[in-house]
Amino acid sequence: MNLELRQLRYFVTVAEELHFGRASARLHMTQPPLSQAIQGLEDVLGTVLFERNRRSVALTPAGAALLPEARRLLAQAGELPELVRAAAAGETGRLALAFVSSADYSVLPPFLRSYRAAFPQVHIVLQEATSDIQVDDLLHNRIDAGLLIPPLPDKAHAELEYVKLIEEPLILAAPAGLLPAGALSLKDAPRLPLIIFPRLIAPGLHDAILGCFAGAGITPEIGQQAIQMQTIVSLVSAGMGMALVPQSVSNLMRPGVDYRELLDSRPLVETGCAWRRDNASPVLRGFLDLLRKTH
User: Is residue 35 located within the same domain as residue 126?
Assistant: First the structure.
């Protein structure tokens, strides 16, 4: 015989009333079925839960030990419908989200604030990663979504969905004190080594940067390559060279770095969100619904 929640509910009622007549009235049932249910519970547990005589009913030590646990189990059972509803609605669970470093200065902070306000019970696992790593993690189901810089590789198109979030121009970052005031052309920038993302890591951004120089008729000297935006800006601050970075990176107010808008024709650098087409997670669905509403 299996333990039933109904038996626990009957047990708690009798334990609170310490009277089978009052307990049966409270449960809107007659006394014999209640007595039979308690006897069945005692048979399942292999112990007596109540000391009974014609004048009184009292909990045995075993019954007293069971009472708080029975209340806890009944309370948890009562919460199950809401837990299931919340899980189905994407209001509880886990979201693994990766992001490129430039997103940390643009779309990520305000969206996370909105998402936390809308889904406070979802546990968010954040991971900073370059676009190529994010694509691999998505293809192998290691993350739910990624904020990355396109394009997606051909191998990913069949399995991943993508939506554009923002476009922003490139700006010049150079060691402090070397640039004239105001917007300038690359032709008027000091001839410094270029600090840039490796093409293998971010081909779209790499090509956009070199395209700016090509449009200005300049072939830059590539001095350093780095895969994190904050590392690139740190190298600029250290006087190692200059860089072209998405405009939002100017929010990283690193001492020793000046930012300037460019007068040259500037391609727009795109940041978007990618996820697996076959990921049916309600948490991901809620994430994407809010993302579409806010962008």
Answer: no
